[in-house]
Amino acid sequence: xxxxxxxxxxxxxxxxxxxxxxxxxxxxxxxxxxxxxxxxxxxxxxxxxxxxxxxxxxxxxxxxxxxxxxxxxxxxxxxxxxxxxxxxxxxxxxxxxxxxxxxxxxxxxxxxxxxxxxxxxxxxxxxxxxxxxxxxxxxxxxxxxxxxxxxxxxxxxxxxxxxxxxxxxxxxxxxxxxxxxxxxxxxxxxxxxxxxxxxxxxxxxxxxxxxxxxxxxxxxxxxxxxxxxxxxxxxxxxxxxxxxxxxxxxxxxxxxxxxxxxxxxxxxxx
Length: 270
Hints:
alpha+beta; 5-stranded antiparallel β-sheet
């Protein structure tokens, strides 16, 4: 399949620093996910600044590629969907509930997008949009099989008619998301995106969240003023940012996000 004329694959690959093959193989899929999670940070800065989050192909390319910004799941996995389709993969957008750091007796909204990719009769899951726990390679959609990624271990379990994507940092299995394999067409993504970016109870409205995968199994994340480096085995080092200028410097140095020096985020103490 020829690349879509409305999507600039060359610009995308330059953005993520990928120079490898473009055939729609498993190796290519793994490499794209690894490069994407390392270079395009998960972030909600536009939500805090009151900017509209747009999901059309032109807006996704402008923001995440040409403006060298990041985004959250509808932007991140929406962009990856365009990439994989342009390369000729069979890919389906699916909906989920994010369960990270939430108990099982709490029901979060179905406001997460991830991707299912079919290759040679096998299903693979790609999710570059779940913040500091985004898997850094594609995951085989196989029940209860432990899979080792460049940063951690993963598995999928099926309980009470629901699938759970789980991560293990060395101590215990923790839920990342819950899903039923229901497809998420664009109209459903638009509705969930509107809730996520505008509803007063959305956790993206009162927290500054930025994350990307680092080298040697490390992860970098920023929650409000706390910049955290987490190692592969789950150990963390936290550095408190004490001024708006230090926050902007960390966004640039650690995540590649260049913002105007006068920007101030509407958070307590920010």
